[in-house]
Predict the 3D structure of the following.
Amino acid sequence: MDLTVWRAFVTVCRVGSLSAAAAELNHTQSAVSRQIAGLERQLGVSLVERHARGVRPTPAGEVFRHHALATLNEADRAVRAVREFHDGVCDRPLAIGATPSLAAGIVPEAVQSLLKQAGSIRWSLLPGLSAQLHSRVSAGDLDIAFVTDAPPGLAVDPRVERRFLGLDELVVVLPAGHPQAGRGPVRIQALADQTWAEDNDGSAALLHQHAARAGVSARIDLTAADLPGKLALVATGHAIALIPGVLTCALRADVTTVGLVDPPTRGIYAITPRRDPHPRAAPLLELLATAFASVRPARAAHPDLPTSPGNDEIPPLVYGQWSVSGLGPPGRAGGR
């Protein structure tokens, strides 16, 4: 079968219109219509049906669309792989994904170390939420992604490899002049009457769970569009917020952090595609794994913290003092 026809069918399903698909593909509408009709004759089933606003796939068409899209993606990757192969060496860029907190400091520092070891490498970094990054790795758009198991958690997917790197203790970010600034780990009860800001459901769920275990509630009155927006609300004194511990090495100067007694944690993972791995993904993963392993346990830094049930096998880590081998501290200690 001609993949050009498959591409036309997938495009029609995506945009929901023969005319819009024709414009995108630089074909005439009648040509696209003939391609779809020929494909239907070849398969012996109707693939699309008309409705008031355009066309949509039939049940059989939806089944074919799913497999056709996978085939087209694989074909595109094959073409890119050949075009990026020069003199026996894979020259394709290393496509990296990371959650916003990891992309703010830890992952770029590890890439810098990789460049020192391996020389010039073309690479890109895409920040995103864990579920989005997982989908991009599964689809072959990313070679490696660094994600977390914060609610709703990580999907089980046989198409990707997953490696646990460590636990991240969440901390509370405060305006620089807040009364609790610099006081060491505090119990959530001391902050229960504060206004909280949040930027995503996963972080909000961790905050509510932690407060509920302590018998109090956290009032999330302000919502930000993203992590920088949440930090801006804190810096201007409108709220306090829960943030990943990995972010403390890269905070803006007008905020500070305080640890929580028995803090909420989230797991940090690296995910890579099982098929067609990038040769530079494994060295980058090892750099991150080494960085996480080199961080001393939280109990050594704060021996007064109580032990959390279920956390004995893998102790939480303090990320404000981490460093990638050979690079030193990635930013201002105690700040961002």
Notes: The CA atoms of residues 191 and 218 lie 8 Å apart.
